[in-house]
Specification:
136 residues, alpha+beta, 5-stranded antiparallel sheet, 4 helices, 5 strands, 60% helix, 15% strand
């Protein structure tokens, strides 16, 4: 038989635990609290079931950051969307510079494109790191 005091101690521990919206994946959807993230061909859709708001984001990190922000009732959505757009722009720039680098004929042009490619990758990584701060 379980002692009555142990049962009370266990109940007090359970009551102290905060409710955390744990993300879980179901099919091609990720659910975090009242938000659903759906992966599409080229982007991610974040849908808030409580308010009916829908956002389209470029990267999964941005979508998870926005969903977590909505689940915790914070107001950082504009900053998260801005960072996601910055990732999208710099990622596309990096792809363009990488392709142009393969096609460049002069060493001068290759050096310029290599520098621009490195800058675009660094900017993408920096924006992703800032989004990670919203998640963790």
């Amino acid at each position: 038989m379980i002692k009555h005091s142990l049962l009370k101690d266990l109940q007090s521990l359970v009551n102290k635990i905060e409710v955390i919206d744990m993300p879980y994946q179901k099919g091609n959807h990720i659910r975090i609290g009242p938000t659903i993230i759906t992966e599409r061909k080229r982007d991610f859709t974040v849908y808030n079931t409580k308010t009916g708001q829908e956002y389209i984001l470029f990267c999964k990190t941005g979508a998870v950051a926005l969903a977590k922000d909505m689940a915790n009732n914070r107001r950082n959505s504009d900053r998260i969307i801005e960072l996601d757009r910055r990732i999208e722009k710099n990622y596309m720039d990096a792809m363009f510079y990488k392709h142009s680098l393969k096609r460049a004929k002069t060493s001068f042009r290759q050096e310029i494109l290599a520098t621009r490619y490195d800058i675009a990758r660094a900017e993408t990584r920096a924006a992703k790191d800032k989004l990670d701060n919203f998640i963790f």
